[in-house]
Amino acid sequence: MEYKEKAKEQLLKLKELRRRIAELKLSNIEFKGTKKALGDLEKNFFTSFRASPDLITISSLADGRYIEVTDSFLHAVGYSREELIGHTPFELNMWADPQECDTFSQILREHGAVHNLVVTFFKKSGEACWVLMSAELIDIAATQCILAVAKDITEHKRAEEEFAKHREQLEALVAERTAELKAINEQLQQEINERMRAEKAMRSFQSDLQAKNKSLEILNTIADKIFGSLDVQAVAELAVAAMMNYSQAPCVCLFVLNAELPCLELRHSIGCGEEVRQVITHLPLTGSLSGAAVAQKELVASDTIANDDRVEPEIKKALLEQGLHGIISVPLLFQDQVLGVIDLFFKGDIPSLTDFERETLMHIGKTIGLALANANYVAHIEAEIKERRRVEELLQRERETFYSTIEGAPNGVALIDKNGRYLFINAEFTNITGYTLEDIATGHDWFNRAYPNLKYRREVIAIWKEDLGHKAFDRVFRVVCKGGEIKEIEFKGAVLENGKIIIALSDITERKRTETMLRESETRLRKLFEAIPEAVIVHDKEGNILLINDVGAKRLEWTVEDLIGRNLREIVEPENAAAIPDNIREARTNGSCSFETTYISRTGRHIVAEVN
Q1: Residue 509, C-beta contacts closer than 8 angstroms, at least 6 positions apart
Q2: Is the whole-model pTM more than 0.85?
Q3: Topology of domain 535-612, per CATH?
Q4: What is the DSSP letter of 308?
Q5: Residue of 79, 73, 67, 68 lying closest to 53 (CA atoms)
Q6: Are the C-beta atoms of 515 and 149 separated by less than 8 Å?
């Protein structure tokens, strides 16, 4: 009797099981239709997502693994989809700077979003690239994920660095050249003043000599000859000839002072034999009679060279062999500066000099010194003019290089002076906005054209004035282009030390539009996913649950959050768990598979289900 009751009970359970199977089959037909629609929608979504031209990724917040990426991102980093999906950037060694990763994560966790953060990634090839990254936290099947949109700014970054480098070099060069020119101008002014004082002294000197007719005639004759040239060598030759004519000395030599060596260098001579000329090419300042004239700034004479220790033995021997026994050394003075000496050599005793004659020789020395100083000054001025031309040419080349660099920049670039006048805009600026330099000669023109709405224009101007108080700024504004098109444009600017402003702008209209479309598409997909009346589980090739709808979670008596991340082996009977890898492999190979399995709910209840 007991056996029959048990059999009857088992028959009733079998009948109920068959009824439920029939219901499940009916539901399965409806589910397949819904699943197909969902699959088509999902396929269209991911096809559109992957075809996006922007660098977009979806990754898990919990472990950072990539869930989905666009083809543009794969192309940018050099990885295949299989190499990237399911892996983290750390596993692939993509973060170039861990500190940037920490900053990105901290901002994202604190604010739920990251906007325009510049980070550095390593491509698969190992090449570093800079990207401008924005990200937001999103929920996919109750799983927090990171939706990140990046823009490759490597070329822009390199252009900025190159631009900054050229700007620093140019500013340093300008500062250096400005300082040099200032010093040169000061020195020129000082020399002009000195020359004016010297000319004044010369006029005074010539006035004093008017009473000395003979000396005046001599000085005028010499001055007429030597001041007829502005070349140092020509002055030396004329001075030697004039002094020989005045003094009647058989040998006259002119030496110029080389303060760097230091020594006296022979510049020109008349009446010297070859042996004498060879030994007097360079005379020391110490231990020589000519050096004594330089040191004392006075006329120095010797009647008997043979007994004068101030004459070097080698020079003394050469002079005596030529029959020269006396010497008068006259310093060539310009103000208090000694420029050289002129030596008069005599065969017998030197002439007996009166005070007047000594004074006349000193005045002749000053006249020659003034002529030499004048020639040196002219040579110096010519060298300065040549150098100034070289500096100006260099500055012009640097200026041309600067404008050539920003003209070829990938972003729009504008240079504005401190009064708001537009000095330069490159071709990309016009390409983005349509405006030329003629259209927007001043900031007033730009604000009126780009922001025709009075209220919005006032808001932009207020922000602009606030930003000018900072060294750098980064803003996004809606700009009305010349053709009437409205664009979202990002402005990055810097205020230079001279008050000028340089601005780089980028058109981010498409990026903004793409972000909006992605958010709307995600919302529609989520609503459709949750509207499916049957349990739906999305898992990876390892069996890890990625998504599950509320229906499936309720049937398994778990929350969606509890099931995300679990493996299918944890919620099916052990004998069914072993078949999971084969089922996944079949689905991946053939595109689909069907099988029956038994799930275990949270309370331990067994749920027989047909899986497709």
Answers
A1: 487, 488, 489
A2: no
A3: Beta-Lactamase (3.30.450)
A4: -
A5: 73
A6: yes
